[in-house]
Write a structure and sequence with these properties.
By secondary structure, the chain is α/β, with parallel strands linked by helices. It has 13 helices and 18 strands. The strands form 6 sheets. A 5-stranded mixed β-sheet has the order 4-5-6-10-7, with helices on one face. The protein has a 5-stranded mixed β-sheet with strand order 15-14-16-17-18, with helices on both faces. It has a two-stranded antiparallel sheet with strand order 1-13. Helix 7 links the parallel strand 14 and strand 15. The longest helix is centred in the N-terminal third of the chain and has 18 residues. The chain starts with 8 loop residues before the first strand and ends in a 6-residue tail after the last strand.
């Protein structure tokens, strides 16, 4: 029986970058293009259709229709508009248009007041500008459907108001059919084992991967797990991998300390509750514990930990995550854990004696 090969797509950030490229082509030559190619942050070449290019009084407005491929993304088919204007100076300024939110709470990747245009999309747009030797632009991104779509996301809770976020780590959107995606992750383990590695570094996302690389772990031993940490631990155990290092953002790996091995927020959470419990066990008073429980994100809650000089909790959470992971695979491998924040700082680790 032939399995359907799922088709990939591109992120909202890549759509916006394509719009900016179409605008810059118009600025430089007057040509109205039907498609452009951009290079995603992982090196993938994306060919993206341009739905419309319009000259306005002080810039160029471009429409791109979001194509998520076979990924069940809520923005699939939505119009992504970029309005690009030339400005003086030496800066690319980002604006939130209709349907794109603004940051209203601490603990996210951007400061309060900024448009919810994440670092990945910003870098994609800067890279496109650099292709044309441009260092100064104003880029406004609008997603009119985003006003309603945001109600189907966690944005209002997290502190993104007025619309959705322009997201994407690399620009490439890969299909997220759960079984297909999980199975696509496992070959990483096979390749690493075949290369002779018996200690693997499991990272749930880009932040963990970046830290693992900075710590000097070989790229061939760094394994992406996405949210499926338990599934990947089982896959590694089946292949007789001796040791695993979990390396990632505290907001993901603190869930493992609580015995949660599918870390998508809609499956299970308890991040703040877990951090509050460990802080309370170290003597944090009830009022400060309540502040942790009321925090917007785990990242935000780390400030309360720092204010109370309770950084010891991170080492204990790391140790608990390792213990839970080892127990999950019935002691068939040794596990260590490294917890980091968005900035890439190591908050806590239990791998000092992990050889």
């Amino acid at each position: 029986m032939n399995k359907k090969i799922l088709r990939g797509g591109f992120t909202t950030g890549a759509a916006a970058a394509a719009g900016v490229k179409a605008a810059l082509i118009y600025f430089s030559s007057g040509e109205i293009v039907k498609s452009v190619e951009i290079t995603a942050l992982d090196g993938t070449i994306l060919k993206i259709q341009i739905n419309g290019v319009e000259k306005i009084s002080d810039g160029v407005k471009v429409e791109v229709i979001k194509d998520s491929g076979d990924d069940p993304d809520i923005t699939n088919g939505a119009s992504i508009f970029t309005t690009t204007k030339k400005i003086s100076g030496d800066e690319i300024i980002f604006r939130a248009g209709l349907g794109v939110g603004k940051i209203t709470k601490n603990g996210l990747q951007l400061p309060i007041g900024e448009p919810a245009i994440n670092p990945g999309p910003r870098q994609l747009i800067k890279n496109v500008a650099a292709e044309f030797g441009v260092t100064s632009l104003e880029v406004e991104i609008s997603i009119p459907a985003g006003v309603e779509l945001a109600k189907k996301t966690l944005n209002p809770i997290l502190g993104v108001e007025g619309g959705i976020s322009v997201i994407g780590t690399t620009g490439v959107l890969r299909p997220m059919s759960e079984e297909a995606f999980k199975n696509s992750l496992v070959p990483q383990v096979d390749v690493a084992k075949a290369a002779g590695y018996d200690t693997l570094i499991f990272v749930p996302g880009k932040i963990g991967e970046t830290i693992a690389q900075k710590l000097g772990y070989p790229a061939a031993a760094i394994i992406q797990t996405s949210n499926f940490i338990g599934f990947m631990l089982e896959a590694a155990a089946e292949r007789k991998i001796a040791k695993i290092i979990l390396c990632g953002h505290i907001g993901k790996l603190i869930k493992v300390a609580a015995g949660i091995f599918h870390t998508h927020n809609r499956v299970a959470d308890g991040r703040l509750e877990t951090l509050a419990a460990y802080a309370a066990a170290e003597g944090l008073n009830a009022a400060e514990v309540q502040k942790i429980l009321n925090a917007n994100t785990t990242e935000d809650a780390t400030k309360i930990i720092a204010e109370n000089h309770l950084e010891i909790v991170y080492k204990k959470i790391a140790a608990r995550a390792s213990y839970r992971a080892e127990r999950y695979v019935f002691g068939e491998m040794e596990v260590g854990t490294i917890l980091v924040d968005y900035a890439g700082n190591i908050l806590g680790s239990d791998i000092e004696n992990f050889v």
